[in-house]
Give the backbone structure.
Amino acid sequence: MSKQLTMLCVHGVSHSEIDPQFQSSWTKAITTAVHACDPELEPKIDFLEYDELFDEAELKLETYAVALSKLLASSIIHGMGDLFARSRGIADVPDIVKWTAGMVAQWSTDAELRGKLREVVLAKMDSRSYDVVLAHSLGSLICYDTFVRNPKEIKDRVFVSFGSQIGNPAVRDVFAGRIEAVSGRKWYHLFNPDDRVMTSPLKIAADNFVQVIEQFDIPNDVLNHNATWYLSHANALASVWR
């Protein structure tokens, strides 16, 4: 009889929910990785959707512009700073900036939005007993913010953050300048040094925390931020999935 592994997947920046291939690509990458370790283990995968909350949130232009500038200054995203500098105003910021650094900036400046996002995560967590939470990019910020405030929600579960901005200096004020371990059974933090979407390694001294370095360079992709590359990497297979 096959065993089930229940997973909650939380996407990151780039307006993933409008991509019809988004969920299937994650599902394929996860299923392939799980079956490589245990062919009898069947992943049961759910996805959290939250882009609508960003569309509905009132954009506080002055604080948003400051946060976006700080994020771009603290990142090494090739060309994105120039794109922002050439814009005449917030309305003219190119979509690639709005849906990458822009979403993180909006999250970091809007406490009401962060509260609504935490509620969405908590409702989803209460709907099913998940074994693993996989959170990419902005999704990792949303989940981390939820779990440090509600530690029982991740207790005895595995948290996987990847392509994450949790350690970025421009967003650490949201966490009072301190990043601490969540109370889950295990926290894996997957970091690609060539990822250019404001990601950062973490220095956390906790028995349940494991940082996994996954260096990859995607052909013709300047950001190197793709979720399925993180999930399919050999180092993820050897640590997270094993």
In short: The chain has ten helices and six strands. The chain has one domain: 3-53+109-241. Residues 188 and 240 are 7 Å apart (CA to CA).
